[in-house]
Amino acid sequence: MCNARTYEAALRILRAIPPRALAYDFSKAHINPNDGWCRLATIQLHDSLWDTFGKVLDGERSTESLVRLATKISENSSRPLREDYVDPKDWLQSFSGANMRWEGLGILFSHWSFGITEFGQSPGPPQRWIPNFADYVLRYRDCAWDAIEITRSTASANTLLLYLLYAQECLESIISGDESLQHSRLHGETVSMLTYLGFHAIKGDMHDTGICTQIKRRLFGKVYHGDKVVSTYAGRPPMLSQRFVSTLLPLDVSDEVLMGVIPWRDDIVDEQGWNTLGKIYSSTLLRARAHMGFIRDSILGYNLQAEGNIGRNDLLDLRMKQENIIAEFPRFIAFKPEDIEDRRLSGPTLYAKLLIELEHLQNLFLIERLLCRVGNTSLSPELLQVSVKMVSTTLFFWTHKDKVIGLYDFEWIVMGYAAPAAGILCLDLLRPCTDNAVLASSTSRSEVIQMLCLLSGFLDWIKPLTPNRELSSCVRRVIQRVLDETLNFSSNSLEPAVDTMDWGAEMEINMNGFGYDLLGTFDWMLPEVVQSGK
């Protein structure tokens, strides 16, 4: 520890480590499959902390004992981390237990923060343990950031630090939102670290089972797709382009196989790298979303380009590519409505299936919006149909929330997927009945109204402290107003309902700050756009 600032940060981190029992409660609570690294490695890292340093951490944590521990961890962190391990045990041993590093402690603090966040989604033990869980999330986030700063002082750049930056980015998204400057800075730093390490252009055989190779590919896939999510949500150009990417996606294996707990067999993955056991792992979700991320990159190129004409045939080809990607996925990945009632499916598995389906629908939704732009129209039967599917699929998180207990960040799901699609449905409802397009042969006008009513309830359920609460409240008010006007509107009138509406109260928020207007997905909320709809 070379200076007073580092010294204070190190002691602050060690003093903030939760008691052993509470630390394990937080760790067990974090079950989200959308991790992007290797949750089992984090659990084993967690165990090694207490097995090796439990005597100090379970004690009084005197300044003297913590200084000795901090010195040991700093010495470990000053050594370069090898990035070429093949055996998972050797890899884990290099940064756990007696070799614990500040990057590893930062990962644990992020892990505990996610656990507290998941605790906070339902009543029970967390309220007994932590009266104000949000304060602890912020405190642990700051400790993880302190770990990043200490690591930076050693001029270290490695896989652990990259994952820690990515985890901090995800946490900041939950705390301050994807539109925030804090999140934008972290995202930029994460992508910069990825490209600095060269993880966007890793050479090698697809079936290379080495632990370091697979971890690097997992991180690449997660950061690459995350870049497309941020770009879509915030309306900014992506920082990673598929033109400069050559890294293969990781093999679809469980964490237990990856970490050597279950012996590797050559027949557990097929020629494309998917698992042959019919199970959905975190790697399955990562691979599926990354594959669709390559399509999203092309969509964003069309959506965000400053100038130039968009060819209809190019968009039709892009839509066909998206359909082909889904068709090539293993059948067990596909979401089916009966999955909702299947008691054999765990919460994380159902969550993964729903998320993959929503990613597919969102790509189609954005393509259909572009096709409407090319056709100089606001709506099309295809756009309406995919909008119905997006809203109805998202609503499963609300109507069957008991199936996904322990998972979190539904605010991002409802605002990222359902809200733009709901705008299309609202726009259609506001058109005069004689001009109203048929949504889909299997979806009636009353069913759409019921869907929007449920979505309004979902938006109202979002917790007041979520970062986009103000925006979600605005969306809810607009949907509610559209429903009121639709239900009160005479079916024989030929005038659009929008002409009779006073939009002032619903437009209190400046929507220009929300990036969906750049992608043409949230512009439905602006009165002048609604009035010009065809």
Automatic annotation (TrEMBL):
Alphabetized GO MF terms: DNA binding; zinc ion binding
GO annotation, cellular component aspect: nucleus
Compartments where found: Nucleus
Coiled coil feature spans: none
SMART domains the UniProt entry points to: Fungal_trans
Superkingdom to which the source organism belongs: Eukaryota
Domain Xylanolytic transcriptional activator regulatory: 183-256
InterPro entries: Sec_Metabolite_Reg, XnlR_reg_dom
Pfam families: Fungal_trans (PF04082)
Alphabetical UniProt keywords: Nucleus
Record GO biological process: DNA-templated transcription
PANTHER family xref list: UNCHARACTERIZED TRANSCRIPTIONAL REGULATORY PROTEIN, ZN(II)2CYS6 TRANSCRIPTION FACTOR (EUROFUNG)
Designated name of the protein: Xylanolytic transcriptional activator regulatory domain-containing protein
Originating organism: Akanthomyces muscarius
